[in-house]
Design brief:
Blueprint lengths: L3 E4 L4 H4 L7 H13 L4 E6 L12 H8 L6 E5 L3 H10 L3 E7 L2 H8 L3 H17 L3 E7 L3 E2 L3 E2 L2 H13 L4 E6 L6 H14 L4 E6 L6 H10 L4 E4 L19 H10 L8 H15 L21 H5 L2
Parallel strand pairs: 1-2, 1-10, 2-3, 3-4, 4-5, 5-8, 8-9, 9-10
Antiparallel strand pairs: 6-7
The structure holds 3-hydroxy-3-methylglutaryl-coenzyme A.
3-hydroxy-3-methylglutaryl-coenzyme A (HMG) binds next to helix 1, helix 4, helix 5, strand 5 and strand 8.
Length: about 300
């Protein structure tokens, strides 16, 4: 099966980094991922620089990347102020995010869910007027750091409101990595049955080691679009305890091993993940940055075995 990946390392991957990452490094990160074959990116966020200082250079990053016909660049847009910035930047697609629980909505977007939906309706209208595609993203769609497991009925209610105001695509965020394969099946099946025309994307975090199991559940339901971050970087600054996205290296390795096509060169990805580790000055969670290639390790000889 052909699986489409959206690379989110320059946005979700970096947004919680406290030390500033240079604009040049952000641009190089995206360019390296393009070289490895990735074609869809959440590049940056047009959010308040006071809330997320790491995304303050959104305009400069997009300007440095320039316009490309072969790649889709997305940016997060929470409100009209962000929409005006996005319109000026020319970014291809606007990601209109909101939260599935009231507590996370207040923490992340400083408003109620209902107010967030109203904000996003105006953002979507401006996107349409600008000839840009707007897609929706729902944080804490499976579990919330403040409220526990997110009820499926709540996800359905919000998805319905988003469909009513014209969204055709919804990214489901497992922000704190609590989703399980059975919950993925329940939520996706319920959404499909209520809104058959709504296109679904899974945005998974690996906090509890279940992200690839959740991808497998998604694949079994025919979901072919996933989001990931090089190195397994990432985490929402407004969800205490949030950790990295499913690592692009681990996801691509898994998908190729299962016979799926991604268009991504795995070896290049590993090289670029190690480069990112150097930029951030630490080991990153991606397992496939450390695992040796299968068959490349020489067996221990007798002498080495004797000394243990
Ligand atoms: C949502 C807002 C903007 C509301 O922010 P607010 O404080 O309610 O907005 P406000 O209208 O009261 O404005 C307050 C100040 O922010 C400025 N401001 C206001 N908006 C903008 C903007 N767009 N761009 C630039 N500046 C902006 C505005 O100009 C003003 O500046 P001041 O006059 O005080 O100097 C704010 O709370 C915010 O930026 N929050 C950050 C949310 C965020 O980025 N979260 C992380 C991404 S979501 C995520 O990670 C989850 C996801 C999607 O990945 C899914 C998953 O992982 O599962």
């Amino acid at each position: 099966m052909k699986v489409e990946l959206t690379e989110v390392s320059s946005r979700d991957g970096l947004q919680s980094e406290t030390a500033p990452v240079s604009t040049a490094d952000k641009i190089e990160l995206v360019e390296r991922c393009i070289d490895a074959g990735l074609r869809r990116f959440e590049v940056t966020s047009f959010v308040s620089p006071r809330a997320v200082p790491q995304m303050a250079d959104a305009e400069e990053v997009l300007q440095g990347l320039g316009t490309r016909d072969d790649v889709v660049f997305q940016a997060l847009v929470p409100n009209l102020r962000g929409a005006e910035r996005a319109a000026r930047s020319g970014v291809h697609e606007w990601v209109c995010f909101l939260s599935a629980t009231e507590s996370h909505s207040r923490a992340n977007s400083n408003c109620s869910i209902q107010d967030a939906i109203a904000r996003l309706e105006s953002v979507r209208e401006l996107a349409a007027a600008e000839g840009r595609r707007a897609v929706a993203a729902l944080a804490v769609a499976f579990g919330c750091p403040f409220e526990g497991v997110t009820p499926t009925a709540q996800v359905l209610r919000i998805a319905g409101a988003l469909v009513d105001i014209g969204f055709e695509e919804l990214k489901l965020g497992d922000t704190i990595g609590t989703a399980t394969p059975s919950q993925i099946r329940t939520v996706v099946t319920a959404l499909r049955s209520a809104y058959p025309d709504l296109s679904l994307v899974l945005h998974l975090h690996d906090t509890r080691g279940l992200s690839l199991a959740n991808v497998l559940a998604g694949l079994s339901l025919g979901i072919t679009r996933y989001e990931s971050a090089l190195g397994g970087t990432g985490g929402c600054p407004f969800a205490p305890g949030a950790t990295g996205n499913v690592a692009t290296e681990d996801l691509v390795h898994f998908l190729h091993a299962e016979g799926h096509e991604t268009g991504v060169d795995f070896d290049q990805l590993v090289t670029h993940g190690r480069w990112l580790s150097g930029v951030l000055g630490r080991d990153l969670p991606a397992r496939l940055q450390k695992a040796p290639p299968i068959g490349a390790t020489r067996p221990l000889d007798a002498a080495a075995r004797a000394v243990g």
